[in-house]
Structure formats: C-alpha cells, structure tokens
Amino acid sequence: MKFGLIVVIVLLLSAVGVTFLLQDPGYVVINFRSYLIEMSVPVLVALILSLIFCIWLIAKLLRAPRRLGEAAGRYRNNRAGQRLTRGMIEMAEGNFARGERMLVRAANTSETPLLNYLQAARAAHLQGNDERRDDWLRLAYEHTPEAANAVLLTQAELQLDRKQYEQALATLRKIEENTPNQSQAMALLGQLYFRLEDWRALEKLLPRLEKKSRVAETTLIKWSTRVHREHLLQATDGDAVTSSWEKVPRKLRKNSELLAAYAENLMRLGLHEQAEKVLTNALKADWNSALVAVYGKVEAKDSVKQLKKAEAWLRDHPDDATLLLTAARLCLRNELWGKARSYLETTIAILPTPEAYQEYGRLLSRLGEADASADAYRTGLHLVARSPLPAIPHIEADQH
To answer: Which one of 1.10.3660.10, 1.10.287.130, 2.40.37.20, 1.25.40.10 gives the CATH number of domain 303-386?
Structure first.
C-alpha cells in the first residue's frame, strides 16, 4: 500500500516535470579547473538519479551478507522452536523417546538450549535411562553455566524421583554451597529428610523452611507433626513425654494426630489417668473420632466412670461408629457382655471394620459361641485383605 502510493506520487511528479522540461529543457554549464561541462537539465537529473541508485545498490550489496545471515538465523531459530514445541508435545503425549530426539536435535540451533537439554533429561529419566539423563544435564550446564542452580535442582528432583537419595543429597549440598537458603533446594531437602526418616536433620531445617521456603503450609504441618511424634515416641518416662509435649508449638497442640500420639505414649508408660484427662479435655474442646478411638484403649482406674462418660457422649453422637466401638470396649472391660454385644452389632451395622469384628470375635469366644466367633474373625480378616481369601481345598483321608 505504502509502496504503491510512493509510485503514484513519483509518476505524478515525473509527469509534471516532463511537461515543464518539454517546454524548455534548460541548459547547465559546469566549469571546474578549466574543464567545461555542458548539458541539459533532463540529462543532469538523470545523472543525479543514476548516482543515487548506484549508491543505494552498493549499500544493499554491502548489507546483503549480514541480512542473509540474519534470515538464515531466523529460519534456524524458527525450526528449532518448532522442534522444541513438537518435542514437548510428544513428551506430553507419552512418546518420550521421540520427544527426546527432537529436543536434542534442536538444541544446537536453539536460542534456549538449556530448556531443550533439561526437557531431554526429563524424557530420558522417564524412560529409565539415568546415564543419558545425566549427559543431557551436563550439556545443559556447559551451554549455560550461569544456570547451574536450575540444572542441579532438576537433577536433584529427578534423583529423588528415582529414590537415589545419596546422590540427591550430594546434589542439594552443592546448591547450598552455591546459594545458601535457596528456597526450592530447601524444599527438596525437607522432602529428602522426610523420606529418609532423618527427623533430627528435618527438625533443624524446619525453621529455615518456615521463613524462606515455598513449601505449602499443609506440608510443613505434616513434617513438623512427624518430628514431634518422634520426640514423644522416644520419651522414656512421664517427665520426658511432658517435656516433649511442651516443646510442641501452640498452633499444633490441637492437632489430633499429635494429641493421639501424646496420649498413646502416656499409656505406653503406664500413665493412663493422665492420658484419660488429656483426651477428655481435647474432646470437650473439639470432637474428633480418632481421639475417641484412643480413649477406648485407656485403662483408667475407674472404668465404670469412663464408660458413663462414653455413654454420655453417645447422646450427642449416637451414630458415631468409633464411639460405639469405644463404648463396647469399655463394656468388655466392665464385663457387661450383653451391652457390649449390642454396641458391637450396631457398630458393624453402621461401619464394619476389622477392629470391630476383632472385638466381636473376642466377645463371642468369651460367650462360648466358637463358630460365630470364627466367622467374625474371618470376616474381619477379609476386610483387611480387601478381597475374599480363596478357600483351602479339602484334603481327603487316604483310603486303605
């Protein structure tokens, strides 16, 4: 459009100029150092235009190699970009081998070889080839040394996925040397310690994770809870359990998992009265079926009072299967066989569990109902196995 407009304007100006020149072509005389040049105005104009054209053409020819190189570079980059996109599509569709080949072929001509090699490493990893994975990561580093942390983080992530924990730890320590408190590295380190069950190392890392990492709050709570559970489990007496509980942050003291661990470890050390008090206070503040289940295992001195408390809770939670099982266990402790049977049968009707059938089998055995007891145990075992167990073939006695 713009070029056409220029052509039209040039033609109009030319027509106007020709009209004037035909009427009077004019006369030009140039005298330079005893040289005399004579010509008409049209000839002078033609010479000037020819000179301008020659200068323009020479400039074009001088710039041509550079422009050809730029055009070739754009072509190669476009091709590399298309291969990168295609390789990513192949990976997303599960064609890892083909995707890896495309990514590697495009790496040498790509403007972002780092991305090509990192994705190729993932493709090799997904094919189970760790040696080739590490080769692509090495090339990624060689092409882009300033992205060392990105390469190492990718390597650590893939090593963790392969459960190569020692190698992952070494990789993450390299990042720590290069960039202390790198958020993603700390997150991966926390994940590694959790998998290794290195609770002491995880405990030391947690304050840094809470301040400078991007780990989800739910994950931090999970890791912190596990660390404090371990402290409770390692306690050898009541004072140690209490001391470990006092170290639990306030925001975690209402955590049902930790409360259950606290009570269970008190019971492990024979402190049932203290455990009963902890659970009663916790359930008064916030009803929780997991804590109710632990309450049923407490062997308080006054088991009758304990049963009455559970039955009082039943008025507010009549359909809570866990509470019904707890009440049944307390009835068994008080030798109230009929009431225990009623609670257990109601529990099984609401929510059949292996624990309920186990208690039911124990009760039926106590009542002398051996066949029914065996059936209850077998049903509970089937629930544990999640599928019916095959029958054992009948063995006939030898006939002589």
So the answer is: 1.25.40.10
